Amino acid sequence: MRVPISWLREYVDVAPDATAEDVLASFVSVGFEEEDIHRFEIAGPVVVGQVLSIEPEPQKNGKTINWCQVDVGPEHGGVRGIVCGAHNFVVGDKVVVSLPGAVLPGPFPISARKTYGHVSDGMIASARELGLGDEHDGIIVLSTLGLDPEIGADAIALLHLDDFAVDVNVTPDRGYAFSLRGLAREYSHATGADFRDPADRDFSELQPGSGFEIDVDDQAPIRGAVGATEFVARVVRDVDPSRPTPPWMIARLSLAGMRSLGVLIDITNYVMLELGNPIHGYDLDRLQGGILVRRARTGERMTTLDGQERVLHVEDLLITDGSGPIGLAGVMGGGTTEMSDETRNVLIEAATFDPVTIARTARRHKLPSEASKRFERGVDPLIPFVAARRVADLMVELAGGTLTDEGGALFAEVEIAGIDVPHGFTQGVIGVDYSDDEIVSALEMIGAEVAESDGGWFVIPPSWRRDLTDKWTLVEEVARIHGLDRIPSVLPTPPSGRGYTALQLGRKRVADALAAAGFVETPSFPFTSQEQNDLHASARGAHLPSIRLANALDGQAPFLRRSLVPGLLQTAHRNISRGLVDLALFEVGSVFAPEEGVVYGTDVVPPLGERPSDETLAELRSSIPPQPRLVSALLTGSITARQPGRAAEHVELSDALDAVRVISVAAGVDIDVSQTQRAALHPGRAGALSVAGEEVGYVGELHPQVSADADLPGRAYVLELDLDRVLTLAGGRVVAESLSTFPAATQDVSLVVGAGVPASDVRAALVDGAGELLESVRLVDDYRGEGLGDGQKSLTFALRFRASDRTLTAAEATEAKLAGVAVAAERFGAGIRD
User: Fold this and answer.
1) Which fold, 502-600+613-729?
2) Which region holds residue 479: left if phi is over 0, alpha if psi is between -120 and 50, else beta?
3) Looking at residue 206, what DSSP letter applies?
4) 287 in the Ramachandran plot: left (φ > 0), alpha (ψ -120 to 50) or beta?
5) Domain 2-40+164-191 in this protein, CATH class
6) In the chain, what are the helix, strand and coil shares in percent, each to the nearest 5?
7) CB-CB neighbours of 330 under 10 Å
8) Which of 24, 76, 445, 478 could potentially form a cystine with 72 if both were Cys, beta carbons 3.0 to 4.6 Å apart?
9) Angle at 775 between CA 771 and CA 777, to 5 degrees
């Protein structure tokens, strides 16, 4: 909401030397956020001049310019020659002249310059050039604004271009602050300055008269709320719409973000900004009969002021007359009864509409307006009578109209529920030792009625504060009025021994280790399709139960994910489409794994403000599916980029296995790999990952069709582990082993086995047979070819032996190696290759 400072001064005392920054600081102190400062950005000599002569000069381009002699007063150089392209003025008119040295909005510096064969010593300004509006049909002729200033007078002050506005952010719960009335009151709270309420008028002069029929027929109220509870109509006759809007009003509307549209419309907009109650004016002579407020009928249409024909919904609230709809209530008026240059008699409407109805209509028709913005946040139900009379008075004053006794009113009893505030409650919530006088004075300052009651106070909030609904909201007002800086900053003392759980620490270690290994963490949305769930979460692509969202953001991905791989594929596709083709991505996140036959969801809604019972918490927990946390990674492109003297190294399956080893070290477990098959992975290039004999995930190359469907240009490798299960099997903390000070004994062994025997099984046999002296075993070669029989392969393992208490001899290492070979021979018929 923009607040012109001159307007603010009408309702509250603002220090004469207060800057825009000072005013914003005052609003911030009572809970508003500062947005911006708006000025006309005009500087230098801008003065009143009188046209002495006009010489039209046709140009070769078909345009006619005027060579003018303009008197700007002796103090500004007397008569100046100025070239002007406008034609809406005559000799003798007084105009606004920007002299050399002036700077207009843009910025647009003015200087004497040669143009059309003359030296133009200044510029005669239009409204748009001064920042007063978008109209550029001609220059400003001051007599059309009702002004007759002296030649040479300061035009900046004359047109109120020296004003400025501060812009504050108004949150949705404080709709009363979308008005000068509301913000002036808040400025008074911040500074202690006297507030003058523009709505403080004798109710007897606000009566609208009679003779105009008004009725509400709401047969389909939303949530039981009637669409319109108040509707005030007044009639002003014999207005002159050609009269100029006064400069002070144009300047204030411009600073408030609204352009001048003619005196009648300007008045209604002005009062809306002033009092916060949107106003609509009808051309009375175009109305047919009285006013009926009702809901739209099926298939009904109307044309709004923006010229758009709209198909109405049965929940839309309409203003109608004998001809049908003439306005979308609280949103926008209709084109058939709008005020125009021919309007002579005006019906003024000020009403109170149901906020939900207005909000839904504005969103349904994608028609946000200044009116709907206020109605959907709630308008003071006591203000429509004041607003209607204020508009009528301004139309009499500025448009020459006559206020009649015609009109009508429909209103309901305004009931505001009282709130009990116990003694000590405010101090307990805020943590500040407020006195009783401070609490009462703060509540009365915001306009509430406060009365003593047993054990506290009975408070009736003001009619314009729809956000004050309970004792907690009243407590917030006390804190706000007396300064949020009084609230102490006290950090809570954490219970001793608390911190990250073992699972949380394990997740952080795994994520940090992958990031340190060169992977980039890319969290993704947890939504996917049923097909993706079946493909990536099931070994054979069988159908798995999934949770479908009732209000999915994307109709093509309405299910909660069971795997992280679909999200990584989308991320990879997005990066590759932008030229980033060498990717190593990972994600640690939850998936949703519902159990077959279990129905999830509950109707239990625990009350606010108190801890739910253990039974309620148990029911809530059972209403959601298990959500294990997984870790997944994807690699594609090159693991090492091409560089001088070295070709690019493309990602291989071994790189994905290295990522598995990184996870195993960070988690503190040994992860075994065995061959498997999965629907999403390439046959023969898929491995099952196991810990202590329990399968916990998989690794492998994506099936070529899956890669193609994801628009990946080359081979891609993925892995996925149930991280929570891995960390549980790890048994908690990871304890680093002491480093032996004795040297290691290394030996290699090549074993010939059947080609179908997994290398991991042979490795496990070596480990089981070699015993405690074996520190590590690593596969270094897989040979199949000359020298071996059909259906055989040679697996070479690098063995490292070490003892913690002595230096091993070669014989001891050889003995341990042969013990492992013996177990491999027993299990798989392995023999040492010659």
Assistant:
1) BirA Bifunctional Protein; domain 2 (3.30.930)
2) alpha
3) G
4) beta
5) alpha beta
6) 30, 30, 40
7) 28
8) 76
9) 90
Does the structure show a pLDDT above 90 at 197?
yes
At residue 674, the pLDDT reads 87
Dihedral of the alpha carbons of 661, 666, 668, 673, in degrees to the nearest 10: -20
Strands ordered across the beta sheet of 164-169: 2-4, 164-169, 33-39
Q: What is the pLDDT of residues 36-46, one digit of tens each?
A: 999 888 988 99
Select from 14, 275, 35, 257 the least CA-distant residue to 166: 35
- First-to-last C-alpha distance (Å) of the chain: 89
DSSP 8-state secondary structure symbol assigned to residue 253: H
Look at strands 94-98 and 123-124 and give their pairing: antiparallel
Count CB-CB contacts under 10 A for residue 631: 25
| Neighbouring-strand partners of residue 293 | 216, 319
CA 105 – CA 156 distance, rounded (Å): 13
Q: Where on the phi/psi map is residue 31: left (φ > 0), alpha (ψ -120 to 50), or beta? A: left
| Distance in angstroms (rounded) separating the CA atoms of residues 356 and 377 | 9
- 2-40+164-191 against 419-486: fold identical: yes
Residue numbering of the annotated binding site for Mg(2+):
467, 476-477
The tokens for 142 are: 């001051």
Q: Measuring CA to CA, which residue among 429, 409, 552 is closest to residue 487? A: 429
Written as one string, the DSSP assignment of 556-618 is T--EE-S-SHHHHHHHHHHHHHTT---EEEEEEEE---PPTTPPP-----PPTTSPPPHHHHH
Q: What kind of fold does domain 745-832 have according to CATH?
A: Alpha-Beta Plaits (3.30.70)
The one-letter amino acid at 491? L
Query: Is 46-159 a domain of CATH 3.40.50.300?
Result: no
Question: 359-388 burial, b if ≥16 CB within 10 A, otherwise e?
Answer: bbbbeebebebebbbbbbbbbbbbbbbbbb
Domain 203-409: CATH superfamily, name plus number: Phenylalanyl-trna Synthetase, Chain B, domain 3 (3.50.40.10)
Residue 136 clears pLDDT 60, i.e. is over it? no
In degrees rounded to 5, what are phi and psi of residue 390?
-60, -45
Give the number of other Cβ atoms within 10 Å of residue 200's Cβ.
8
Quote the DSSP letter at residue 267: H
Domain boundary assignment for the chain: 2-40+164-191, 46-159, 203-409, 419-486, 502-600+613-729, 745-832
Going by pLDDT thresholds of 50, 70 and 90, the confidence category of residue 201 is confident
Confidence (pLDDT) at 348: 95
Q: Please answer whether residues 425 and 456 qualify as being in contact, where contact means their C-beta atoms are separated by less than 8 angstroms.
A: yes
Amino acid at 24: L
**Rounded distance, CA 68 to CA 771, Å?**
109
Residue 179 has pLDDT above 70, yes or no: yes
Q: Which of left, alpha, beta for 540 (phi over 0: left; psi -120 to 50: alpha)? A: alpha
pLDDT in tens, 272-323: 999 999 999 999 999 999 999 999 998 899 999 888 999 999 999 999 999 9
Token pair listed for 536 = 């990536």
Q: Which two tokens stand for residue 233?
A: 């109509």
Binding residues: 467, 476-477
0.85 exceeded by pTM: no
Select from 120, 119, 50 the least CA-distant residue to 90.
50
**Pairing state between β 583-590 and 520-521:** parallel
Dist. CA 582–CA 575, nearest whole Å: 9
45 in Cβ contact with 112 (< 8 Å): no
Residues 405-448 pLDDT 10s = 999 998 888 889 999 999 999 999 998 999 999 999 999 999 99
Question: Which CATH number is correct for 419-486, 3.40.50.720, 3.30.56.10, 2.40.160.60, 1.10.10.10?
Answer: 3.30.56.10
